[in-house]
Structure prediction request, 140 residues.
Amino acid sequence: MSGQGIERTDPDIPIFVIAVAADLAGMHPQTLRGYDRLGLVVPRRAKGRGRGRRYSMRDVFRLRRIQQLSQDEGVNLEGIKRILSLEAELEQAHQQLVQLTGLLNELQREGRASRVFTAHPAGDVHLGRTRAAIRRELTR
Prediction:
């Protein structure tokens, strides 16, 4: 334990056997096996004999999200797979935005922020184009 109280556990550590993960998610273990086959939630495998599935807390949260989309929203499994994929892409884009904003703030503090970040439609991020150059390009 740290001096701050209870230490936070890494949500990606695979600590739950299938029965416990199913119970935490409010599902039957066979449902989790099906989701594994479909690639909706892919648990890690234990080492050694048996190589049973091990679920992390993040997996349990994902299982709850799947259940909510399925039962409350009426989304089919293929739709759920697409929604989860899009949510992951959005989270990745958000993390990139936070990093770029931090870098821009740092450049502004140093007085080197006369250039801006731009994003190409393909998703590439470019640094070094001036605002005037971007305006010229947009008005073409």
Summary: The radius of gyration is 22 Å. The longest strand covers residues 125-130. Residues 1-74 form a domain with the Multidrug-efflux Transporter Regulator; Chain: A; Domain 2 fold (CATH 1.10.1660.10). The chain has a mean pLDDT of 84.
